[in-house]
Amino acid sequence: MSEEKNLKSFTKDSVHLQLYPTIDNSSNFSQYKPNVNVINIIDIIRNICSGALSIRKKHNIRTRMPLGYIKIFGLDNSILDENLINILKEEINVKDIIFLQNKDIKIDNNIKLNFKNLGAKIGSRMNNIMNTIKQNDFQILDNENILCNGFELINNQDFVSIKTLSNQAFDSSSEDYNLVNNNIAIVVSIVTNENLESEGIARDFVRIIQTIRKDKNFNINHKINISHNSKDNVVLDAILKYNNYIKEQTLADSITFVENLEKINNSFFIDDTEINISIE
């Protein structure tokens, strides 16, 4: 459509054969400038999602397993509308998002000195610098260097700052954290329960059905009947509990247990349980 429209203004057979149009400097192109605020917000959302997914990976929690909640420290939730919050929930696969202020969090700066680099610079003052750093008696400057005993240490050259979240901000037995940037941190629940497990299994079941539909080249509107042979009580309970959800997501009229279901192609695994599924 765009090519057809542009061809009305050009003489070539295709817009791809045209030279770039010249810009009329007298025109007002301010309306086409990128919205910096929106870009910054999207970058923050992307970093939050990346931090949450890395926590999942660290604790071997599959992405289709819903998490109970995520706490976000230091982000003004007024900059996020309902659509952006829903995007966050969907991308992280979390049931609830809790926004907390900076005052509710404490980030500890652990300084690791580069002795080889510093030794050549400060010589005999090294011991004094080391003792001052151990006592946390230093100032972090705006450029992220640190001022220690009147000497400015260069970040990522004279030292490395390893930031960690204070233990008072999260429960290490049920939560884990990630630092999104210098001002924002996230704490994610890593504990699952029966309801979350069931929903995760149902999502995995839907994923398998969608894969089979694609492999069979089914039309997007094609109604199906699902047969499976899982005898695992946890899987069976999840399929029963989320029966309507599975049908809606897969356009299924029925979901039936068939004990002697013939193996087709490869078996699938849901929560380490082997299952054979057939659709028609």
Short description:
The chain has helices at residues 2-7, 36-58, 82-92, 115-122, 126-134, 194-215, 233-241, 243-250, and strands at 67-73, 94-100, 107-113, 139-140, 146-148, 151-153, 159-165, 175-179, 185-189, 224-228, 252-257, 268-270, 273-275, 277-279. By secondary structure, it is α+β, with helices and mostly antiparallel strands. The strands form 5 sheets. The chain has a 4-stranded mixed sheet with strand order 2-1-9-8, covered by helices on one side. It has a 3-stranded antiparallel sheet with strand order 4-5-6, covered by helices on one side. Strands 11-10-14 form a 3-stranded mixed sheet, with helices on one face.
Distance between the termini: 38 Å
Structural class estimated from helices and strands: alpha+beta
What would you call the quaternary organization? single chain
Enumerate the spans where pLDDT stays under 50 for 5 or more consecutive residues. Answer: none
Mean pLDDT: 83
Largest sheet properties: 4 strands, mixed
What is the helical fraction, as a range of percent?
Answer: 25-40%
- Beta content comes to 15-25%
* Gross morphology: extended
Number of strands: 14
From the structure above, extract its key features.
single chain; 280 residues; alpha+beta; 4-stranded mixed sheet; 3-stranded antiparallel sheet; 8 helices; 34% helix; extended
